[in-house]
Amino acid sequence: MMNQTLNQTPKIELRTSPHIKSGRTVEQIMRNVVWALLPITAFSVWQYGLSALLLIVTVTATCLATERFMNRVMLTGNTLSDWSATITGLLLALTLPPSYPLWMGVVSGFVGIALGKFLFGGMGFNVFNPALVGRAFVQAAFPVSISTWTPAFAPGRFSGLIPTTLTAPLMTPPDIAYWAKHALDGFTGATPLARWKFENVLATPQDFLTGAVTASAGETSAILILLCGGYLAARKFMDWRIPVAVLGSAALLALAFHVFSPVRYPEPSFVLLSGGLLLGAVFMATDMATSPVTPWGVWIFGGIIGVVTVVIRYFGGLTEGVMYAILFANSLVPMIDQYTQPRVFGSLSGQRKGKKA
Amino acid sequence: MNLLPGKNPPGNWAEFLEGLWQRNPVFVMVLGMCPTMAITTSAINAISMGLATTFVLAASCWMISLMRHVIPKEVRIATYIVIIATFVTVVDYGIQVISLSLYEALGAYIKLIVANCLVLGRAEAHAARNPPMASVINATGMGLGFTLGLFMIGGVRELIGMGSLFGISLFGPHYQPWVVMILPPGGFFVMGLWLMVFALVRARRDHGLAAQTQGG
Amino acid sequence: MSEAAPSAAETTPSGAMIRALGIAATICGLIIVSAYEGSLDAVARNKKIATERAVFSVIPGATSVREFVASSAGIAPAGPNVPEGGVKFFGAYDRAGMLKGIAAEAVAKGYADEVRVLYAYDPVKQLITGLGVVSLHETPGIGDKVRTDRDFLKNFVALDAHLTADMKAVANAIKVVKHGTKQHSWEIDAISGSTVTSKAVGKGIRDSTAALLPKLLPFVDKLKEGK
Questions:
Q1: How many domains is chain A built from?
Q2: For residue range A53-64, what is the model confidence (pLDDT) as tens digits?
Q3: In 10 A of CB C117, how many CB atoms?
Q4: Higher pLDDT, B94 or C97
Q5: Confidence (pLDDT) at C8
Q6: How far is A164 from chain B (nearest CA, A)?
Q7: Do B163 and A170 touch (CB under 8 A)?
Q8: What domain range includes position A138?
Q9: Which one of A36, A190, A274, B26 is least enclosed by Cβ atoms within 10 Å?
Q10: What is the ipTM metric for this complex?
Q11: Rounded to a whole number, what is the distance in angstroms from the first to the last CA of chain A?
């Protein structure tokens, strides 16, 4: 196992952001990310109850099993110990609605690891964030289930499961609109983003900070996400510039729209706190294998994610755009890296090189 | 890639098998991807499209082969396209006679058989150099290989995407359709999956052959 | 690979080229014409059956269908050419030859592609009384709910589309409203989650009724005499 880590280290370092001090192993970084995710996971379970717990366990277990299975098929060594599959599983589960049927969670975990990671060659070679690949697949495959929301802090959340959780494999989950209305009075079944887009109702920042909104399992605890992200950034396990660039560009663009028409467009704080922007900016955009390595590249990458997210939310058919924004920016990473290579001392200036090209 | 064995003109069976399996248009030559991706949303659509293409392929290769001595090479592409377009038109009317709903489902892709590189490719590479009988056999093999390829994609897409095969529900009324499989990305997923399966099989076989030669 | 066609020496005489293309074109022309002639009747029969099936499904009780064109000049049986500004529609008749209702196609851009529907119109009550889908390529599970969603189809049991007193325009243009907010009889309650497709259906019907009804209703008595 030790050999394995050593063998992989040079490969990983090529793609690791330059500010990370050498001497840290991938395993160490990944383990810390897992720790940082645990409080968010715990909050999500407290908020949504047994169903969320089962979903998180199932999806993570699927990711680990798939990783082991692909190790065998692709004849690579055991890569379970680098924690990356655990992160993928946790993140993926946190982006799914708590009511998500377990069998669909299994599908998304398998697709995320097998298609999103191993078909590209395993860790470090994947172009797209595996968790988001898994989520994008099930969003396209089962569009109804992934936008079926249940109330947070429902009174009976620890005594029973949401009816959809244990849907038999391959079968359509039951309609739970009726159940959800009875689980919590006044529940509308729409996320704050959807309510803003289709009904022009704005949720307040207090709602977001306390998690009293409808959302995916791990999206609601804004304070926790920031705290955990702060811990990773402070210990330099994460590039702080990416979330800053994502949130900054999203906020700036949202502010510009808000100034242009305060009636039509919400305040920047709504854009920052709603949906999966925080979770995505802190934990998914910062995935080392799928973000740029150059200092300028990191800012450009984050900027693209923020702008695309806001554009999708405001003008797209979907209510939430973080996932596609990150996947889109992931695909641009090789190009960003190529165009933002720092100039080697004494070589031609960038401008003249640009002219030649 | 897979050269035909021997230098003698291949027998009828070999001509037929070439397209059906060894150089399958979909999975080995990867030709005609436009209908392959667009039409394979169900098994019946895939097979209809494959058979339509087979007819165009066989009929135009037969006619091109008959005329191969009178067509000067300067105008051969124009002639081939005229001939191919003719049989596509025939198929177009034929499908309208058989079923209007099938015609609606296949849409513009029937007309697009004219531009299927498989058809022009066979005309240029085979029919223009071989007698009519051999051309028709080879073209039929290719066409059926194309049909088989489309069916293997369409069948999987329908099975997962709608839980049915040839419109017959297999998993009962509560099956959760995998919408993505019916949408265009599904075509790419299944195509990629099959290519991977074939690559794996080939790798295993080559591995086995290498082991045998080493051992022997 | 074996040797290509005949000895392509230095130059091919133009005559040979023209001859080859001429032969090919002649043969192909013959094949196409015979295929067209041979399939003409069968295709027309198929189309008639398809139209009848579609119209019968939105106008129960009808047993025959005739196609008409309404233009500013009045109503005429549909011929091969549609006159300027003419709108096609179908008249559905029962066994006794009485007009059961009118059906017309409505088209609008949906989420993925054009959405084509056929709606039934009762010229006496001036109501839309049925909806059938002609062609739909919307996302399965979302947009294609317009085929099956019971609440949505209920909109078209009696959707108001009466003309103003001067018969120049539809009094209240058909309007699609958000799910659960239907107030007037000319509004369509959209399917929540497939708003785009619901709106396409509504827009198609609005445009079609606006174009057709003012030309059709003033002359509707002509249709009633029917056969």
A1: 1
A2: 999 999 999 999
A3: 25
A4: B94
A5: 46
A6: 13
A7: yes
A8: 26-155+163-171+182-338
A9: A190
A10: 0.80
A11: 46
